[in-house]
Design goal:
This protein is α/β, with parallel strands linked by helices and 270 residues long. It is built from nine helices and five strands. The chain folds into two domains: 3-211, 3-Layer(aba) Sandwich (Rossmann fold); 228-269. Helix content is 49%, strand content 9%. The chain has a five-stranded parallel beta sheet, with helices on both faces. Helix 4 crosses helix 5 (141-152) and helix 7 packs parallel to helix 9 (260-269).
């Protein structure tokens, strides 16, 4: 039996616990997600390097997942353009069953190898692209087939699972395993396994963007002022970098179409 499918002895009688006790045991178990990611950092680093290299060559990153894994992937991909000022085509998420499964679960979709292959090939992959398959169990046929198809196209392939060894690892150039173990509710991998997946995707997308110049120091240099909150953040970033007053920051931004990078480049050239 997969570790993620076993019963957790700490929560055998969670149905008899008071609310605070439930929360304490869940929080304790959540810490195991962070510890599991710690054990995988060496492989996560390999994934970051592969993705950064792909970006430098004009390649793209594709996440492929089903259910919770797919929804976490969609969230990470959707947040890259506003955070790093990149094209929506740079980081992509393919979820089994398509957009409808973002809001309504369709668990059977993960069993279709044919759909996994077709969906990833529809993206017109090139050898510069990276395809990352995500499956808590590591055995989703949809994800495995997508990785196999990507490999045939010459892509670099990465797997992410909370178990090892797994089926998806067999199709991966880089295999990441975060051993989160038994869930608080048996088999509910939206919990610890999902936590670990979110942490790893955060790391891969963020660090690859940093390595390819999308961040200045620890600031979002490509941030676009698309609402009031972000406009104020853009101003603060410029005042921080230039060590100037707000009025000067606004004036410089207005002169450079509210591009932080353009402001900084012009300032450095002075």
């Amino acid at each position: 039996m997969l570790p993620t499918e076993t019963r957790n002895p700490k929560t055998t009688h969670i149905d008899e616990m008071d609310t605070l006790s439930m929360l304490r045991v869940m929080n304790e178990e959540n810490r195991a997600s962070v510890d599991a990611v710690e054990t995988a950092l060496g492989d996560v680093a390999k994934a970051v390097e592969a993705v950064a290299t792909a970006f430098e060559k004009g390649g793209r990153l594709f996440y492929v997942g089903a259910g919770t894994s797919g929804r976490i992937a969609v969230m990470d991909a959707a947040e890259c353009p506003p955070t790093f000022g990149v094209s929506p085509d740079m980081v992509n998420a393919i979820i089994a069953g398509g957009q409808r499964t973002m809001v309504r679960a369709a668990e059977g979709e993960e069993d279709s190898a044919t759909a996994g292959r077709e969906d990833v090939l529809a993206c017109n992959l090139t050898e510069n692209d990276v395809v990352m398959g995500i499956s808590a169990s590591g055995g989703a046929a949809y994800v495995h087939a997508a990785l196999c198809a990507a490999k045939e196209q010459g892509c670099t392939t990465i797997s992410l699972s909370s178990n090892s060894p797994t089926l998806i690892e067999s199709a991966a150039d880089i295999a990441i395993a975060t051993p989160t173990g038994a869930e608080v509710i048996t088999g509910s991998t939206r919990l610890k396994a999902g936590n670990a997946q979110k942490l790893v995707l955060n790391m891969i997308s963020t660090c690859a963007m940093v390595k390819t110049g999308k961040v200045y120091e620890n600031l979002m240099i490509n941030l676009a002022p698309t609402n009031k909150k972000l406009r104020e953040r853009v101003i603060r970033i410029v005042t921080d970098i230039l060590t100037c007053e707000r009025e000067e920051a606004v004036a410089r931004l207005e002169a450079h179409d509210w591009s932080i990078r353009a402001v900084v480049d012009a300032w450095k050239a002075e």
